[in-house]
Amino acid sequence: MARATGIHATASIMTPGRTCPMSYRYGPQALAQAPVRAAKTLYVVGGLYGNVPALDAVLAMAQQEPGEVTVCFNGDFNWFNVEAASLRDINTRVLAHDAIAGNVEVQLCTALDDAGCGCAYPESVAPDVVERSNRIHARLKAALHPHRDVRAALSALPMFARYEVSGLRVAVVHGDAQSLAGWGFDHAALRDPGHDDWLARMFAQAQVDVFASSHTCVPVLKQAGGVVINNGAAGMPNFSGRQQGLITRISAQPAVHEVLYGVHVGRVHVQALSLAYDAQRWAQDFVRQWPAGSDAYVSYFARIQGQLNFEPEQAQLLG
Questions:
Q1: Quick one: residue 120, left, alpha or beta (phi over 0 = left, psi -120 to 50 = alpha)?
Q2: Is there a contact between 25 and 178 (Cβ–Cβ < 8 Å)?
């Protein structure tokens, strides 16, 4: 579970996995000018990470809502899905909904590998973690290579989206307000009071009330003028002992599923919903693709089993 030490993930040595390519940069002014999509209820699903049971659960939850639901997958919906069947299943079903690219998808479609996985990890993340992530991505990229139609669809994805939900202006990004792989919406950055001036500028320049992100894999909700909600991961556990994912829900209608925490902005709910997927099936799917000793197993299997030291109360930076 990587955490940032500043607004951007920078490193003294520009190594693969720590690099933030210039092509990732867009800035808050681009968010202000983005076309607006209307939504009655918006689900923001970041970090699905190739978890097919989690995708099943998200779409089932949307169907159980009383009204129309817009589902936006905000990047890194690929990661562990190196088998051909799960690779095609994830992408076919995700791309039937709204979606933006994460660094995983962008790097899958580039000819060069100089940025590695494209995560732009900060220096606080150990080198062996970065190296394993680069190798995980390389294996996924090789698995995707024969699927030219999927690569073409992924390469056409935008880096951000803008919605209006009952008058609330929402920017959906993968990283932060400035970059696809920015760490400005990481838990560590947002709990730093010195970060608040930057955050206020981002709200003003993007002309939004809410930023919904993921990327950093650590959930956080901060209300400071506007609201930043980072769902951490839909496809992996986020809290100690809970083998469930997390998604963001934004709606004027009350939630019909388990809400872990949230805030109101006027009459609109901005909430983190528990995503109760079939954890046993997912563990079996994961180990089949990434057996014991593999890079993904070493980096992620403990988390997939719910072995984290983080609680929902810690994700809430309110007041």
A1: left
A2: yes
- 252 contacts: CB under 8 Å, gap ≥ 6: 40, 165, 166, 267, 268, 269
How far apart (Å, rounded) are the C-alpha atoms in residues 229 and 270?
Answer: 8
pLDDT tens string 252-274: 999 999 999 999 999 999 999 99
CB 182 within 8 A of CB 9: yes
pTM for the whole structure:
0.94
pLDDT tens profile 184-215: 999 999 999 999 999 999 999 999 999 999 99
Closest CA to 242 of 187, 303, 313, 315: 303
Spatial CB neighbours of 25, under 8 Å, sequence gap ≥ 6: 178, 179, 180
Task: Give the β-pairing of 268-275 and 259-265.
Answer: antiparallel
The greatest distance separating any two alpha carbons of the chain, rounded to the nearest whole angstrom, comes to 51
Q: Are strands 210-213 and 168-173 parallel, antiparallel or unpaired?
A: parallel
